[in-house]
Write a structure and sequence with these properties.
It is a single chain. It contains 2 helices and 9 strands. About 15% of the residues lie in helices and about 25% in strands. The strands form 3 sheets. It has a 4-stranded antiparallel β-sheet, with no helix packed on it. Strands 2-6-5 form a 3-stranded antiparallel β-sheet, with no helix packed on it. The protein has a two-stranded antiparallel sheet with strand order 8-9. The model has no long low-confidence stretch (mean pLDDT about 75). By secondary structure, the protein is of the alpha+beta class.
Length: about 180
């Protein structure tokens, strides 16, 4: 298998029509897509079959759809952001059995390990501080500075949403606080 797109996220802007809107990554199942609309920074998760349907779904010989498209039940107002998130399940449901002289047990074990690795990543990311789903990862820089720069510093965000650190004596426009997060 190949994965011809290197993204798991995409967006479009509503123009007062129902669609169709192209999904910027391939899918194996219609249920592997989460669609949200964002208006005034308030996300709304939409439901397949109720809020949108797939209007272009032509699987290749491996079951993958390279250029899926959706159409909304109701027009999406102009300026409303539409967010497409790849959301396959973190499970490995395919089992390849031994056939003649080809013994896929090694492959099967590797697929299982990849599925377990995916579950581990999902668990880790669920415990992290995250930007909203509708913000593309490239919009702001959320990378922590190196230890030498961030030691004895407070983390914060500048006016554009980029992660920055402040020295304990120069935190701008703040009032003292009585509690901080502590490691457990």
């Amino acid at each position: 298998m190949t994965v011809p797109a290197n993204t798991a996220w995409g967006s479009a802007v509503g123009t007062g029509i129902t669609g169709p809107y192209s999904i910027p990554f391939p899918l194996y199942s219609q249920t592997h897509l989460t669609v949200e609309t964002v208006s005034n920074n308030v996300p709304t998760t939409l439901n397949l079959g109720t809020d949108y349907t797939f209007t272009s779904w032509l699987p290749d010989n491996k079951g993958q759809v390279a250029n899926p498209q959706i159409t909304f039940t109701n027009p999406v107002a102009g300026g409303v952001e539409i967010v497409f998130l790849l959301s396959p399940p973190g499970t490995q449901l395919t089992s390849i059995t031994n056939q003649f002289e080809f013994f896929p047990s090694l492959h099967e074990a590797e697929f299982d390990l990849l599925a377990q690795f995916t579950l581990m990543l999902l668990q880790w990311s669920g415990k992290s501080i995250k930007a909203p789903d509708w913000e593309y990862a490239g919009q702001t820089n959320q990378t922590m500075p190196p230890v030498a720069v961030r030691s004895l510093q407070l983390a914060g965000w500048d006016a554009t949403g980029n992660l920055i650190t402040y020295s304990l004596t120069t935190v701008p426009n703040t009032t003292p606080v009585s509690t901080f997060w502590t490691a457990i």
